[in-house]
Amino acid sequence: MQQNDDADIVLACIEEKYIHKEVLMEEHAFVKILSGEMRVIQADNSYTFSPGDLILLRRNILSTLIKYPKDGRPYKSVLIFLRTERLQRYYSKNPFSKKPQQLSNIKIFKPHPLFDSLFASLMPYFELDSKLPESITAAKVDEAILILRHVTPEIDSMLADFEGPGKLNLADFMERNYMFNLTMDKFCYLTGRSLTTFKKDFKNKFGTSPQKWLTMKRLNLAHSEMKTKSRKANEVYIEVGFENLSHFSYAFKKQFGYSPNNIPE
Questions:
Q1: DSSP conformation class of 123
Q2: What's the domain count of the chain?
Q3: Which domain holds residue 215?
Q4: How far apart are the C-alpha atoms of 41 and 243, rounded to whole Å?
Q5: Which of 208, 139, 201 is nearest to 172 (CA)?
Q6: Fewer CB within 10 Å, N or C, the chain?
Q7: Smallest Cα–Cα separation from 177: which of 196, 193, 164, 190?
Q8: Which three-class secondary structure state does DSSP give residue 168?
Q9: Both 74 and 150 in a single domain?
Q10: Tens digits of residue pLDDT in 172-200
């Protein structure tokens, strides 16, 4: 089956030693781990998932994903994206009246025969030489929604929530998420602000520009990680929000007066 960034049903396979990426999920993703392991790091928690685990990753949540082989097998998973437009169409025909519940950013499911049947039915599609017909994709996504609702009725509170991020407490959000390497537009969106309002509120709260503050916070975190945990620069620079090691080393020396390889005792 041909796959692309717009596919709703995806088989992910990572042959490399590991892959590390920061993501902002724009759609809910229902995931089954087939082999390897995946770590999910969010502002308030971190998780490790192994073969057989079933999870639902909530949209509009910042996460660091680390995927790697295990037991001689590559990381492999199946993802079903529950896109907002599909969910809106579904719930327009299947409204629910239960009181909304506050759910975590990651929903972890126990094994269930209906989940086993769903994911087993998807595997032959990945052998196709052509794109899966839209009618079949729609049917399988609807099946996933039906099973999720049957097994976990409270999931409606997540799946039927179509609101974008509201205006959040800026200081609290930035203190919890500064290590994520996002564009300024993404930070604005997630805090419910226009770019102009974001910069104004940020200046009032922190007394400096967002970029200067982000650089300082990320360098301080890196310094702490290397000094207290004896970690190396090439182990932390991506985790704290830098894209390349040379830029990190330059900024680190400019901030502290010594290179990350020569931190004083």
A1: G
A2: 2
A3: 170-256
A4: 18
A5: 201
A6: C
A7: 190
A8: coil
A9: yes
A10: 999 988 988 888 998 998 899 999 999 99
Report field, pTM of the whole predicted structure over 0.85: no
Q: Are 26 and 85 in contact (CB under 8 A)?
A: no
Strands 28-35 and 19-24: unpaired
Rounded CA gap, 72 and 74, in Å? 7
Residues 133 and 19 in one domain: yes
Query: Residue 1 above 50 pLDDT?
Result: no
d(CA 28, CA 47): 17
Share of the chain above pLDDT 70, in %: 96
Structural domain contains residue 1: no
Question: Which backbone phi and psi does 242 adopt, to 5 degrees?
Answer: -95, 145
Q: What does the pLDDT read at residue 194?
A: 93
How are the residues of the chain apportioned to helix, strand and coil, as percentages rounded to the nearest 5? 45, 20, 35
CATH of the domain at 112: 2.60.120.280
**Average model confidence (pLDDT) across the chain:** 89
Does any domain span residue 164?
no
